[in-house]
Amino acid sequence: MFAGARIILAEDSNVFTSMIGKRLKELFDIDVEICRSFEELQLSYDKSSDPITLAISNINLPGAENGEALEYLVDLSIPTIVFTGTFHEGMRDKLLAKDIVDYILKDNIFAVDLLAESICRFLTNHRHHVLIVDDSATARALLSSRLKRYNFRVSTAESGAKALEILKANRDIGLMVTDYNMPDIDGFELTRRIRASIGSHELRIIGVSSSSNRLLSARFLKAGGNDFMLRPFIDEEFYCRVNQNLDTLLQIQSMRKERAVA
């Protein structure tokens, strides 16, 4: 499935390099390039012209005790998942500011499985096409950058009317994230119009709003939406809700195919 994917693991723990390498080989048939020091990481990058698909990096490595390895990967625009045992709220903010793909904590026995799941999602997210609908250019850019960081294909629309045009021209869109308060067609009306021809088995819809009105979620869901989030929301919550809706979409589509065959 992932033939050609080049993954680098920057980690000095023999236990974790062994566990991660074995797990990724079992699940995805991927041979990970292991770098146990900053010098090895630099040599691994320099020795091959093949692009690095994804890097998994500890924050601190021998020769890079102050996070230089992560800075190196970020500066090279290499998508990176941080795998660390050192974590606090301030560090989280610094990590997300670097536009990393994800971070996984080494503080539980499921850490390697969580890492494998994050890797799998990154390597398969390009199959999903997501539409962002918001009349605010800043909001569109923020959500678009978040989704592209996770390797999704993204389209944007500045109005409800434009969103309907894009959906008509791109039937592969599986998820739409729409603002509620828009001048031409608000999120409720946009959802109702879409549901007249496109069901939840084809398109999942997440509504978002900065309003303090808690009843907006109920109204949106009754209009045909699948989920609703109040701004401001944090990256981890947003990505989780996106994943949950796309997982549900794939499950529904799989069941429909099985019934059709039966």
From TrEMBL:
Which key words are in the record? Phosphoprotein, Transcription, Transcription regulation
The organism's superkingdom is given as Bacteria
SMART domains linked to this entry: REC
**Which residues get modified to 4-aspartylphosphate?**
179
Q: Record's InterPro entries?
A: Bact_response_regulator, CheY-like_superfamily, Sig_transdc_resp-reg_receiver
Which PROSITE patterns does the protein's record reference? RESPONSE_REGULATORY (PS50110)
Q: Where is the Response regulatory domain?
A: 6-121, 129-246
What name does this protein carry?
Answer: PleD family two-component response regulator
